[in-house]
Amino acid sequence: MLKNFIKISWRRIKADKTFSFINILGLSIGLTITMLLFLFVIKERSFDQMYTNKERIYRVLFNTDEHRNNEIWATVPAALKPAVDQGVPEVQKSARLWDHDFGKTASIQVDNKNFTESKLYYADPEFFEIFQLDFVYGNAKDQLDRPNTVVISESTSLKYFGDINPIGKTISIDNDSKMEITGVYEDFPANSSLDGTIIGSFKSIGFYKEPSWSNASFETYFLLNKDARADAVISKMQKLVDANVEKEDQWYTLNLQPLENMHLYSSNIKSAYTSKVGSIEEVRNFSLLAVMILLIACINYMNLATARSQKSTKDVGINKTLGASSNVLIARFFTETAFVTLLAIIVALLFTFLSLPFFEKIIGSSLSLNYMLSYRFLLAILAIWLLTTLIAGSFPALHLSRFSPMEVMRSGRDRESFTAFLRKGLVIVQFSASVILIIATVVIYNQLEFIRNKNLGYNAENTMAISIRAIKSNSEKETLIKQFENLPEVSSVTMAQGYPGISVSGRSLYKNMNSDESISLKTNRAQGGIVETLQLNLLAGKDLPGQKQESDSIVDVLLNKNAVDFLGINPQEAIGKNIIANLGPNAYVIGVVDDFNFSSLRSPIGAYAFNNGFEPLRYMLVRFNSSELPQTLEKFKGTFGKVAPTVAFDYTFLDAHVEKMYAGERRTARAALTFAGLAIFIACLGLFGLAAFMAEQRTKEIGVRKVLGASVSNITGLLSKDFIKLVMIALVIAFPLAYWMARRWLQEFAYRIDIGWQVFAIAGTTAILIALVTVSFQAIKAAISNPINSLKNE
Amino acid sequence: MLKLEHIYKWVSSGGRRIFLLNDLNLEVREGEFLSIMGPSGSGKSTLLNVIAMLDDFQEGKYYFEEEAIHELKVKKRTEIFNQNIGFIFQAYHLLDDLTVYENIETPLLYKKVKSSERKALVADILDRFNIVGKKDLFPHQLSGGQQQLVGIARALIIKPKLILADEPTGNLNSKQSDEIMQLFHDLNKEGVTIIQATHSESNVTYGSRTIHLLDGSIQKS
Asked: Does B87 touch chain A (CB under 8 A)?
């Protein structure tokens, strides 16, 4: 019987190739999206599952008080670990991590070659006992026990030394410390939150000898005993804080986060070292999206299946008179659906395989093909197959097999107004979703264009920041500046603590000496030439002076307009004014520049001050005027290497950095565009099915009308009218929803576009045009058919 | 074989009853070849459907081989129908996606007949109807007469006691009609009871008895 069913299914697929093609294609596309989303979900859920002790590993969290906005940090004081080792027996092992120079890129020198490393950590020896990584060279025991030793990852070892065993060799970090390599560990897996490429011994850094309770800069991990409870540990940690920190200095409490929650539940946690932070909301949304798309694809399948119901109902009738029971027919329809679904799944697997790189680009994270072979995925596919068969097959199976043979044989119309309603409803929902996605795409693209073209208040083009952190002597820095100034490609050059787009120091600016009223002020130590290099708009006064004696206690300040506005004076009045901003008692305003976007356009511009105070100068900012970028870069690199041969040439283009701030939005735009396209396509398949169904139902009417003299265009118009009505309803539903959603999204930007009527006009016209094209294909087909054929069937 | 007593069947339209079968009485004995005649809308098809237990009636009694059909549940009725009755349609109603062979085999599948037995039965009937050479063709590759032949073969495969034929030659030319009727005649001789609804006077001559229907009642028997 089953064999027979499959045989019939296969013949039915072959009999109407166009129809089967559309049906299987629609289902495959839905399944492909579902599979891709599931791959993503599986990957996100697999994070940190590879560690043997994963249930017992915790990260210490740091809850700040209301003066710091109750932020949660992933970094805690260095004094915690030794105290916990002494006083909390539940903690079996503990280890601190410190991100090199508070998260700055390190310049590494190996055998006179320079490299940059952004994932250099320092860790306690217990680190490798908590996270049991395998070692390629050396063994996991006793690593990081001595000061000035490091272990490096396998790929780092390959990069530095090639295929040899590097144990015993030394590397130097930021021209400072020479470190001996004592081991090589296998790279952290891609789905591990922790991801160091070099791990130095904690004993190598100054914080080891004098751990404090106030500097919360260290990620700390615990391995608890088998039967230990996290809340007991938390309360004992609090006792340690009470014992070591005065009550009025306790601006924080401590908490524990299980390793298994680290990836998905950390989006609100600041200062974590890992860049691989997922979001449980995203996982939930994607799961929901996957189920919804699957559902829409299933309903589409039903829609198309019932479009052929006239033939099917006749089939059911005949089979019943030949002795088939309802159950047999239900089984037959389910078999047919299962068969079609299986074909669609095979096609979808192929699509998934082919579209994976594209999808990776959209979501901005890499998915290994290995996940496609994981038992979870295979299980998910089996579940999808059964579910799709059950849902998509339910309508034809239960609806059609119910008919009594007599009803069926009367060459009946579909009397069920409910199914007609369902089909129309589906088309409306699909088109609403499509229109919303079209509008979203247009709005996001417009906003991104707006950002790209907005005058930032400074000129990010043709400007680069070169890291000079590893250069220790001031004279070397000065030499470097001189050398660069002499290059013909360079129009101006200066040094600064930071540049627009990265974090600088945070201080408070007070209204006056006696006032408590203050605003947050970002301060950036810089040198003369900053106005020219960034092409800031100077409103009053002058640029910072070129040279300053180290002994000079006067700090010159270049305020932005926002800061001056807060002080309640105009730019001219501000010149020479002494300001209270923790910049020392002798901070005087030397100039005022117009506001510029020093952070992303999401936030409004705040107060900003360039100054020649005391922070280290970490970057050399260079404005160049050359179109031959590669040659210029080579030249810069050469000049840099001559002055500082032991420092890696690490540079950033300012405009590229600005672009990077909107990478998330760009990704959203790409996703919206893709999903809009697919949603429209699937919606069109639904519409196509509906149109085919209606045309079939009205064959006789069309025949009669043609005999009475209706033209092809009359008939086409008649049939299209109904569908345009549906699309119109969809527009009415979609417009307010889309407007509301777009407004909400734009709220995140302090600088944003207005949503004009044009957006709606574009989306509406697109939807109607696409619908018309889809429907008219069927309508014209029906209209040009010979009426004799449709009428003689009675 | 079967007996209908005071059968009433109606549909309501605008508050009024329109009678499809109106106090209809009929007895058919085993081995009869009954022809039902009457103008369009007189209730021929309705009567056949009632006899086939495919359609309900509102009042009256129906006995099929002593079984009181009007008292039975749908499932039981279907069972009796499937065991005893073969139905032949004017429009053939072959399954388009199946070959001739598979069309004829289908009722056996539903009766869960074993594969070897199925093969033998289908081979027999193909042979008897002289359509062995056509067994792998699909319905649309056959002429109307050939399609009806397949339809009859399919109805006969379960060896029914009673064959109901609703205008079996309505779509055929006179030569094909005569062939089909001759076939019915032969089947009847072998002991199969046949009831046909027809417009054709020439078809009637093959039968053993004729009744005339008008407005859902028998005119003369």
From this structure: yes
State whether residue A407 sits within 8 Å of chain B by CB. no
What one-character-per-residue DSSP string does A344-369 give?
HHHHHHHHHHHHHHHHHHHHTS---T
Interface touch B106/A319, C-beta < 8 Å: yes
Q: What total of structural domains would you count in chain A?
A: 4
Average pLDDT over residues B36-42: 88
Residue that is last in its domain, among A247, A275, A303:
A275
Quick one: A268 and A314 in the same domain? no
Please report whether residue B23 resides in a domain: no
The pair of structure tokens assigned to A552 is 């000079």
What is the predicted pLDDT for the residue at B5? 93
Domain finish residue from A637, A657, A677: A657
Q: Is residue A52 part of a domain?
A: no
Q: Which pairing describes strands B162-166 and B85-88: parallel, antiparallel, or unpaired?
A: parallel
pTM, two decimals, is 0.74
Pairing of strands A91-99, A76-77: unpaired
Place of tokens 């080792």: A85
Q: Cα A264 from chain centroid?
A: 13
Name the β-bridge partners of B67. B64
Rounded distance between C-alpha atoms, residue A189 and residue A184, angstroms: 15
The one-letter amino acid at A416: E
Q: What's the domain range around B154?
A: 30-57+74-218
- Token digits for A318? 């005949």
Strands A463-467 and A619-624 turn out to be antiparallel
| Contact in structure between A196 and A188 (CB atoms under 8 Å) | yes
Question: What one-letter code names the amino acid at A140?
Answer: A
- Stretches in chain A below the pLDDT threshold 70: 68, 307-310, 403-419, 550, 789-794
**Left if phi > 0, otherwise alpha if psi is -120 to 50, otherwise beta: which for A48?**
left
Of all residues in chain B, the percent with pLDDT exceeding 90 is: 44
Contacts of B109 (CB under 8 A, 6+ apart): A1, A4, B118
Residue with tokens 């399948």: A301
Q: Which of residues 283-342 of A touch B (CB under 8 A)?
A: 311, 314-315, 317-319, 321-325, 328
**Angstroms from A415 CA to nearest CA on chain B:** 17
How far apart (Å, rounded) are the C-alpha atoms in residues A108 and B210?
109
Cα distance from A401 to chain B (closest Cα, Å)? Answer: 15
Angle formed by the axes of helices A663-697 and A309-321, to 10°?
60
Neighbours of A355 (CB within 10 A): 18
Q: Cα–Cα distance between B209 and B221 in angstroms, integer?
A: 8
Cα–Cα dist B220/B212, whole Å: 6
Give the residue among A421, A370, A460 at the shortest CA–CA distance from A189: A370
Region of B66 (left: φ > 0; alpha: ψ -120 to 50; beta: rest) is left
Burial (0-12, 13-18, 19+ Cβ within 10 Å), A705: middle
Which residues on chain A are in Cβ contact (under 8 Å) with B78? 325
Residue A391 lies in a domain: yes
Total domains in chain B come to 1
Name which of B40, B47, B54 to mutate to probe chain A: the one with the most chain A Cβ atoms within 10 A of its Cβ.
B54
User: What ipTM describes this predicted complex?
Assistant: 0.82
**Residue B18 belongs to some domain of the structure:** no
**Exposed/middle/buried for residue A378 (C-beta within 10 Å: 0-12, 13-18, 19+):** exposed
The per-residue pLDDT for A410 is: 58
Same domain flag for A632 and A721: no
Contact assessment for residue A611 and residue A558, using Cβ atoms and an 8 Å cutoff? yes
Q: What phi and psi, each to the nearest 5 degrees, are found at residue A418?
A: -65, -45
Average pLDDT, chain B: 89
Domain extent, residue A672, equals 430-455+658-794
In DSSP terms, B27 is beta-bridged to B3
C-beta separation of B158 from B125 below 8 A: no
